[in-house]
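Dear V.,

Thank you for sending over the compound details. I've combined the ligand you provided, S-adenosylmethionine, with the protein sequence from our construct and run the structure prediction for the complex. I'm sharing the raw inputs here so there's no ambiguity about protonation or stereochemistry in the SMILES, which I know was a concern on your side last time.
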Amino acid sequence: MTFQHIPVMVEEILAIFADVPPGVVVDATLGGAGHAAALLASNPDLAVVGIDQDDEALTAARHQLEPYGERATAVKARFDTLGTKLDELGHAEISGFLFDLGVSSHQIDTGQRGFSYRTDGPLDMRMDQGSGRTAADVVNQASERDLVDILRSYGDEKHAVRIARSIIAQRPVETTAQLADIVRDATPARDKRRGDPSKRTFQALRIEVNNELDILQGALDAALERLCVGGRGAVLAYHSGEDRIVKQVFRDLVDVDDHRSPVPLNNAEFALLWNGSKKPSTGEADENRRAGSARLRAIERIAVAS
Ligand SMILES: C[S@@+](CC[C@H](N)C(=O)[O-])C[C@H]1O[C@@H](n2cnc3c(N)ncnc32)[C@H](O)[C@@H]1O
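Below is the predicted structure of the protein with S-adenosylmethionine bound, written out as structure tokens.
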């Protein structure tokens, strides 16, 4: 199966990195290297260190990045080890970083990976297929309370209790089709009108299986710490929980006038490129369904701490 993924908000991402100092940009979520290849093509002064924990993504990315030779390095890792990986490669400072969070279309569309409620497959959902708990492990081992927490926190699921009880009553649950049917049956008819109700459960389990929210702040901190003056960081988030973390991490660095704080928080080290988040154009959102929920935030290091 060829790797299919359309990179999101490419023009906006290229504009962010157009004038950063020459050096290395870390693409912490390399995927099929759509963004990374566009960056290398648009700015000859940049090299890219790309990180992904998914072997299929790395194979596709290495192929895509071949024309850029030594300007591109693809590393298998979870992005919270970004600091160690950069140390190993000898990059104490970076000119930029990009996080394009969540899953690729390739992962969703490959039924055998177990991410999709639309295609039957084993209930896996691990981005790194070589380690960690699968979605089946979570679904078949978690207590009712833990399942409810996962569905509420990561899926905003208002029928979390009904769904968790139904799952527990029908264990073992081994396939995506089985899980999707359980969720649909547990959802009241009035709440099935707007799209497939199993979407929220699948999103919640994916976030839990891959620790997506727990490791984000540490990874952002490690990347921010290494940014050179004039270096920029960009994050594309597709879920309100991830975007909230990004917003908070950036805000804590730049907040000049937080009335709740007794001391000024601004150390004049970082500045936001714009307030709030940017959305894709309506044209892009119409053409690429996945882009619709994207929220882009960006930050620049403007000085080193004194
Ligand atoms: C939205 S896709 C990135 C697509 C990429 N920007 C492109 O243009 O092709 C997200 C990628 O990040 C990877 N990923 C997500 N969380 C990760 C993590 N914690 N560590 C390493 N890779 C991660 C996924 O495996 C997936 O390949």
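A first observation: Strands lie at 23-27, 46-52, 72-76, 94-100, 227-237, 270-272, 295-301.

Warm regards,
I. M.
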